[in-house]
């Protein structure tokens, strides 16, 4: 041990290792084209601070696989420096007592002034910052290939009532109407946009955030399940287990007309060199243009035994909150900056619309947390509701039965 120290001191004196270099191991699930480009920017900035980036990528959209791997790493005493965890789960991890504090970094960086109050609260456990936010994603989008709609002579649906006629025309013209990947989190992503479009933001909030039993079992929820079933008619037979970015590629390549997916899909269009308004359209999912389902990516930091860990975590958090990172990362990711003071000049019209709608819906009450992306209710409840949604989507169960199961799943703690 002592000998090792001596060697380190000697090497440092020779300038061969920097006493300031910390290893920063970051768990995330950003492995698609657009996501990987975004993660690479984070790596670049960490390395620019003289730290060593250790990539801990766990493939799987929506992060379910990543969360399983994270739990086993923490249980075996090998928590990474930082991990992509968001929403109410931050509180759950806080209660485990394994998180480090970012308070001194947050204080020096005046995070309380830079972040919207609702966001800052989610990043804190018992008043202390334990997480740093990356972005604001909007989930209730519809990604459209205008060429396909044109060839099919179909109008882009503005409401869910318009949807079947458009989808029918597209199918008859030989295209796939809805690009989808049959994975539970993708089914759930479509479902929440259907609920929002059918019932409105107030209903969404009562049912999927407050978990009000009356709303969950209401005729409106039944109608949402019926509509959700209609969407299934228009996905292709090979959808099972397809990754979300491959579904996006179908819209990009003109095989499919539309996809209901959060704006990480825009990262794929961007990576493919496509221009919004020309090659593709970003429109609110049917009936949801006055609402905004938000999904905020963030990283929690874990207590570490290495002496230089705090330095690595401070470098990491400072990098994430810097205007430079917030701009370049979100340009690639499809999201918008989460902190104030970042110019949107370089962002496209989809991002500008997102920023405007985020601000407007925060005032109107149309701003709601995405349940499919773990922003609304605890992880166990999210999982139980997702199971109901996905099993309905993949069976011929009646909407009447589904709402009963939904209401009972909502009681899962
Ligand atoms: C979301 C996450 C996004 C995006 C997406 C697909 O849950 O917030 O950043 O990566 O999953 O993997």
What percent of residues adopt helix (DSSP H or I)? 40-55%
Computed over alpha carbons, the radius of gyration is 22 Å
Based on secondary structure, the structural category is alpha/beta
Proportion in β-strands: 5-15%
- Name of the CATH class of the largest domain: Alpha Beta
- Compute the separation of the termini in Å: 47 Å
Instruction: Please give the order of strands in the largest beta sheet.
Output: 2-1-3-13-6
CATH architecture of the largest domain: 3-Layer(aba) Sandwich
Largest sheet report: 5 strands, mixed
Query: In total, how many domains does the architecture comprise?
Result: 2
Apparent shape: globular
CATH topology of the largest domain: D-Maltodextrin-Binding Protein, domain 2
* CATH evolutionary superfamily of the largest domain: Periplasmic binding protein-like II
Subcellular location: Periplasm
Organism: Uliginosibacterium sediminicola
Main location: periplasm
Signal peptide: 1-21
A few lines on this structure:
The chain is an alpha/beta fold.
What do these coordinates show?
Residues 1-21 form the signal peptide. This is Probable sugar-binding periplasmic protein. The protein is an alpha/beta fold and 413 residues long. The chain folds into 2 domains: 10-137 and 295-353, D-Maltodextrin-Binding Protein, domain 2 (3-Layer(aba) Sandwich), CATH 3.40.190.10; 141-290 and 378-409, D-Maltodextrin-Binding Protein, domain 2 (3-Layer(aba) Sandwich), CATH 3.40.190. Helix content is 51%, strand content 12%. The protein is built from 19 helices and 14 strands. Strand 4 and strand 5 (128-129) form a beta hairpin. Helix 10 packs antiparallel against helix 12 (219-232). The longest helix is centred in the middle third of the chain and has 26 residues, at 184-209. Mean pLDDT is 95; it is low at 1-5 and 11-18. The structure holds beta-D-galactopyranose (GAL). Beta-D-galactopyranose is lined by residues 29-30, 35, 61-63, 137, 244, 264, 295, 297, 373.
């Amino acid at each position: 041990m002592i000998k090792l120290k001596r060697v380190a001191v000697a090497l440092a004196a020779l300038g061969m290792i920097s006493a300031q270099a910390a290893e920063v191991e970051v768990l995330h699930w950003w492995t698609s084209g657009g996501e990987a480009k975004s993660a690479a920017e984070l790596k670049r900035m960490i390395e620019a601070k003289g730290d060593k980036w250790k990539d801990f990528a766990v493939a799987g959209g929506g992060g379910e696989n990543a969360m399983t791997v994270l739990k086993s790493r923490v249980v075996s005493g090998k928590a990474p420096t930082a991990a992509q965890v968001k929403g109410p789960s931050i509180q759950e991890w806080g209660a485990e007592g394994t998180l480090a504090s970012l308070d001194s970094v947050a204080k020096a960086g005046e995070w309380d002034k830079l972040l919207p109050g609702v966001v800052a609260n989610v990043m804190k456990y018992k008043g202390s910052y334990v997480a740093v936010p990356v972005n604001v994603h909007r989930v209730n989008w519809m990604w459209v290939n205008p060429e396909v709609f044109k060839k099919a002579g179909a109008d882009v649906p503005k409401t869910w009532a318009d949807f079947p006629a458009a989808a029918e025309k597209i199918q008859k013209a030989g295209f796939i109407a809805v690009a989808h990947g049959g994975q539970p989190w993708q089914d759930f992503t479509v479902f929440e946009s259907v609920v929002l479009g059918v019932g409105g933001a107030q209903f969404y909030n009562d049912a999927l955030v407050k978990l009000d039993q009356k709303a969950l079992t209401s005729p409106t929820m039944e109608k949402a399940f019926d509509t959700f079933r209609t969407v299934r008619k228009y996905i292709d037979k090979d959808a099972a287990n397809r990754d979300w970015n491959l579904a996006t590629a179908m819209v990009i390549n003109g095989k499919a007309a539309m996809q209901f997916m959060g704006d990480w899909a825009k990262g794929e269009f961007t990576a493919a060199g496509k221009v919004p308004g020309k090659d593709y359209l970003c429109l609110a999912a049917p009936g949801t243009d006055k609402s905004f389902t938000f999904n905020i990516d963030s990283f929690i930091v874990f207590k570490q035994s290495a002496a230089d860990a705090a330095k690595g975590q401070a470098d990491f958090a400072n990098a994430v909150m810097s205007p430079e990172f917030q701009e370049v990362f979100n340009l690639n990711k499809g999201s918008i900056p989460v902190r104030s003071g970042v110019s949107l000049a370089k962002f496209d019209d989809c991002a500008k619309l997102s920023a405007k709608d985020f601000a407007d819906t925060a005032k109107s009450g149309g701003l709601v947390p995405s349940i499919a992306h773990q922003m609304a209710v605890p992880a166990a409840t999210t999982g139980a509701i997702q199971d109901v949604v996905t099993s309905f989507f993949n069976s011929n169960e009646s909407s009447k039965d589904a709402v009963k199961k939904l209401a009972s799943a909502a009681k899962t703690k």
